[in-house]
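User: For my dataset I need records formatted as: sequence, then structure tokens, nothing else. Please produce one.
Assistant:
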Amino acid sequence: MVSAAATSAAILSSATHHPFQISSTFSPKLPSIKLKYPPKSIRTLTKHYVSSPTNKSFSGAGATASKPSEETVFFDGGAHYGDLLANLLLGFTLLWLPLTLAAVFRAFFLRYRFTNLRVTVISGLTGQDRSDFAYNVIKDVQVVPRFIGEWGDVIITLKDGTKVDLRSVPKFREIAKYCLSKAEKPVVLKESGPKGF
């Protein structure tokens, strides 16, 4: 008498010894893809897309009046470390805890990049949330100092009415003046009084 357990074990062992194969007549031949450079990490890289190629040389009289072909970085960084430190110290109170969590998020997952061609804000847990805009769409720039003026918020108003709020920016006055100069606006900052942290 053969038990049911022995029968199922025999079926499983026979299934494991004969792998399932698909006939070549039913599977199309796919081309093999070889990577030129194998990926070093899972995280995707942020690529800059410039409207004109950087390797072309310009000749003639129009070369001096054209846009620069190389993107140079004026500022690339995250939120000011003082914002994180002040909010961590005040985070021991239960009332300040949501603001502390926001400061931690800004410190670890938010990057600002100001180049000669564009403003880039990179955020999100993986860094894939990215906002870019050129300087020619800037209508107005305002600054709001925080703490004792060590860091501040930069509020950029675009021509379509969108307001971009960059919080806890170090060197916020210099960055705001740089944005206005690249937007070809008079360098007059609208600065409101200090507003807490």
